[in-house]
Known about the structure:
The complex is a heterodimer of chains A (527) and B (184). Chain A has 527 residues and is mainly α. Chain A has helices spanning 21-26, 30-58, 69-104, 112-131, 157-184, 197-228, 242-259, 262-276, 283-296, 312-324, 326-340, 349-372, 374-380, 384-414, 420-446, 461-490.
Amino acid sequence: MSAVVENHDHHDDHHGPKKGIMRWLTTxxxxxxxxxxxxxxxxxxxxxxxxxxxxRAELFEPGLQLMDPIRYNQLVTMHGLIMIFxxxxxxxxxLANWLIPLQIGAPxxxxxxxxxxSFWLLPTAFGILLSTxxxxxxxPGFGWTFYAPLSxxxxxxxxxxxxxxxxxxxxxxxxxxVVVTIMNMRAPGMTLMKMPLFxxxxxxxxxxxxxxMPVLAxxxxxxxxxxYFGTSFFDAAGGGDPVLFQHVFWFxxxxxxxxxxxxxxxxxSHIISTFSRKPLFGHSSMVYAMxxxxxxxxxxxxxxxxxxxxxxVAELFFMWATMLIAIPTGVKVFNWCATIFKGSIxxxxxxxxxxxxxxxxxxxxxxxxxxAITPADFQYHDTYFVVAHFHYVLVPGAVFSIxxxxxxxxxxxxxxxxxxxxxxLHFWLSxxxxxxxxxxxxxxxxxxxxxxxxxxxxxxxxxxxxxxxxAFLFGLSQLLFLYIVVKTVFAGKKATPQVWDGADxxxxxxxxxxxxxxxxxxxxxxx
Amino acid sequence: xxxGPLHNKIFVSLVGAVAFMFLFSFMLVPLYNxxxxxxxxxxxxYGPADFxxxxxxxxxxxxxxxxxxxxxxxxxxxxxxxxxxIEVMTDKVSKTSYVATNNTNKRLTLSIVPSVSPGLAAENIxxxxxxxxxxxxxxxxxxxxxPIRFYVDSELTDNxxxxxxxxxxxxxxxxxxxxxxxxx
Lengths: 527, 184
């Protein structure tokens, strides 16, 4: 067999993508990089989900069945790290890459080569983190919050630290790229207040990332120095303070929580407006609400640590500051409801996910308000009530919004319509699965079941079994999602450029699938 | 675009913001300590107190002091207070002690970290002598009695009648070689 000699004619002026693997390794095209981010995040979502299946299998009944507690802690830790840094954040960055240039009428991101680097750092970081699975000492098992001095005494902590550093560098580069693109490359006539809400939400998110990812880098650097260079930032034996670690970590950690939800607000606003066939109610109040949520996120961090022994004044301050966030969030939920009100609504899959987002995210928000009440938090702290709360805002919150976004923009990306029946089936399986999984965790949490243990008291057995069944249902139905997406990439009814009759925005003015290069000449924005 | 990213004002200021926030995370360490010191939060005490400090509008009363001891992790030391509970008059110097025993055949270097509860009383507990000011060394199987001299100043808030003094003992270093092996 002889190799076929390729005889390409390189004289044409049209620069399409390169062929083969080099297209993806060297690409500087925002659409290619967006696709890479989205597939990476899907892979991380499935891997982190597999870890979650392991956790729920162990918790299916009391006692230790499948793994020892150390292994269990490793699964919990890796589930958290993979879902946050590999699943949700890269998914939003992928959406930003695909959509921001299309929505502001720019030909590409402002710094395409840095864009390539910031993607390829991610597999590197996760390669380092996952390599600990094959080492003596194993994967990190100190929780995604890596409280010192537990983490400083853990084997392989240096791999964890370097992985976090690289992920952080990737996020910071991505964010700088987003800000510079939005500030410099908007089409003529697109003022800041005319920007679509997804772009707005990402502009704010990018500023948050730029502010707090370096603090995370600082925290892991101090951790590394404590573990290997004999410093005592967090080690009381040398005059350090473990509570200091919690302050530094949550100073990063709370804005991080909003980093994972603000882009979801943007996505939901687009979808609800499209399928209600009405312009969004209160565009500028949405922007102000997101800005105030972002600003407030810097002054609420200690509500994660009400029980460390803070004085009353601090407890009260952080309680009120936290509750204040309910106001801008309430404005957003009100605006979504007002947009739906008297709209001519149809329930395509993205709309179903968006409505579920509004309802279930609000449930998560309410349990957050309960947790913000300091005296009540002493009871809820480190119970499954907290687990239920943050999974409600992250799974049917952030993850549902990502799924909604994928269904909504998939025809634009692939040129094919997804199978509506299959999409709806996926929605209902996910919706039912998520609620069966996480709603019972409110009950066991209020009854006092603590987090982070591989075993539990007999009284919690029934609800944990229910929760595990829900988790398996939710986990398996994501394979259906994979199938739907792959099928749409290769086949399906051809999509029109407009795709959805109620959709509004520059991305719907280009062909479906969006050509490799768009907006070489900036579009003109009227009005 | 002819100009590189370094000519882009927004890019440069964002990179500056990243550098600033990284340094800021390290600034949090001294800021945190200063904040705790100024406000007396977290039960932190710094150094021996000024015994001759003038006071105004204070009155003497009795305060109950309780002593707690904790050994961190699995440090091979027995560590306990000789008295768990004493009544003291404000502004009068009292003396008590802790006892520590090294349960190994190696020399141990220890550091003992104090904490006062309620935290707001921390600034009113004035220690004149304390084993927590310096590192302590215990020879193999040695038992030492460590004295503390302190007083409670009368500026202590009225509603505090019980103060807990808690000491946590950390093993800092363990000598590698076995000390004093007998040769005959």
